[in-house]
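Is this the right way to post structure tokens for a design question? Let me know if I should format differently. Anyway, here goes:
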């Protein structure tokens, strides 16, 4: 028959195992979200600063229009130039997986009459 010390040890080991599992799952979730995106911006029709700082552009959806446009790694709309273009918007509607990191910020410059939605993750 087990004494009280054995039962307390078993309980303690169970708590430690559950805490370790929780920490592992939280780490996995953070990594998973960085690749599938944890933020969205929809209905973008004008040059827009979506996010300042580092992250990952996951998906781009052109929901209307065929004029294309660009996505930039820039900290402001004014800083968006051809030198920091990370993605060129397609000239057809649809969803495109991009999976591209950005470091300064995320700026969307849709073409005339183009509506864009993006999924991204923050670092």
């Amino acid at each position: 028959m087990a004494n009280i010390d054995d039962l307390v040890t078993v309980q303690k080991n169970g708590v430690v195992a559950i805490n370790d599992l929780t920490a592992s799952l939280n780490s996995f979730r953070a990594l998973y979200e960085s690749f599938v995106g944890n933020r969205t911006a929809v209905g973008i029709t004008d040059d827009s600063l979506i996010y300042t700082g580092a992250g990952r552009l996951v998906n781009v959806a052109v929901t209307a229009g065929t004029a294309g446009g660009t996505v930039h790694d820039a900290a402001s709309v004014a800083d968006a130039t051809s030198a920091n273009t990370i993605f060129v918007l397609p000239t057809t509607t649809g969803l495109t997986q991009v999976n591209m990191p950005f470091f300064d910020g995320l700026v969307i410059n849709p073409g005339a009459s183009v509506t864009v939605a993006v999924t991204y993750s923050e670092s």
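Format looks fine. Someone answered above. Worth noting: The chain has two domains: 1-36, 37-122. The mean pLDDT is 93.
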